Amino acid sequence: MVGDGLDTTTTTAARVLKAGVDSQLTLERLPFLGMLKTYNVDNQVPDSGSAATALFSGVKTVSNAVGLDSTADLEDCSTMEGEARAHSILDDFMEAGRSTGIVTTAHLTDATPAALYAHNNRYWQNDADLPEDADGCEDIASQFMEYAGGVQVVLAGGREDFLPEDTADPEYPDMNGKRTDGRNIIREWVRSHRNDNAEYVWNLPDFREIDTEETDYLLGLFEPGDMRYETDRGGDGALEPTLSTMTRKALEILQKNDEGYFLMVEGGQIDDAHHEGTAAKALYDTVAFDHAVEAVLEMVDLRDTLVIVTSDHAQALSFTGYGARQDSILGPSTDNDGEFASDENELPFTKLQYSIGPGGILEAKSLAENGTRRNLTEEEGGPDFVYSAGVPKSSSNHAGQDVPVYAVGPMAFMFHRTHEQNYVAHVARMAACLGEYEGNCNRSPRGKKSRKQQ
Length: 454
Description:
The protein is an alpha/beta fold. The protein has 12 helices and 17 strands.
């Protein structure tokens, strides 16, 4: 399970939002904890593609690569073949005849899910994204059909990458797909599974009607782009399932396979909210991700299922200001008498701030027009409020601090100190007796001949 951009600051702030400073998120209750170093081959601070490739394949790579090692040239498709292709945990499970699933609130072609099945430049999500001179190159949506069409459960956003540009979106008739090659990959998926008890859905009512006992393959794409933030769900006429609801449905299908399964669940909008400087949205999506963790723990047997919860990278959020314990985490900092804490210019400030991001643009504008930064009052802190930032930039940057990894189940004890990020994939393979660890497992906790774990 991956919280995109879910670092320790975001975790702490979401804990305070959910239940107070002395509470715990569900993910924080997992008994084993380590830290992951997220740098990649060429940068101190990673992008999501290289970080996800490390998590899922056990290989550190260059920025913007998904499912490729560092020998690939991301502008030359001929270098993205053969030994440059990284083998993911998803590949291992599929080859072993075990069930697989992907659940995310982001585009299905976004960097984190794409690192499970694609071998590509993370920005080539559909064929319209390919450079003019990219002869013979495949886009990520095409590679989904080629390499991951056999994944049993796929629930995400991103319909636009799978529909042709002359086809209207079923939910938003004034919006069309983005593909210029005329392919309707959703239709291709349906046809490829016409004999497999398969269903495709794009809205919550149809999703609710899915009978998991009678469904072996499920594709759900619930938005043209990313799925909505938790705070914005009320404005969606067709409605979308929550991350925890999608997770439960996926597990109901995958757990029918006695040989075992792999499921990746991503809270993909945490990071997007941070990039926008809207910390409240990031925290509410973190709480939604925590609900998905709770759903997993309720449904799996921890005697033979390894659950790993982590992040791909950190973000530029800080939590400061000596706020009173009863303060809302989202608003300005106050003392125990309810008075605003203030800076050297007697202006209130919020407890949550960014080191870099769009809030810096607003502060610079206020400084130019008024001679001071914005005067933040108790009215600030709503879902769309853009928090202050020290450096003005249209999008916040990722951050380079280590991120936590929580675990429970077989081999969870392997997470116990500061590890390289690509270590995670090796622990997962060891727990599942796959890849280089195939044949290492003789008996399971239940006395079976081999362990078959998530």
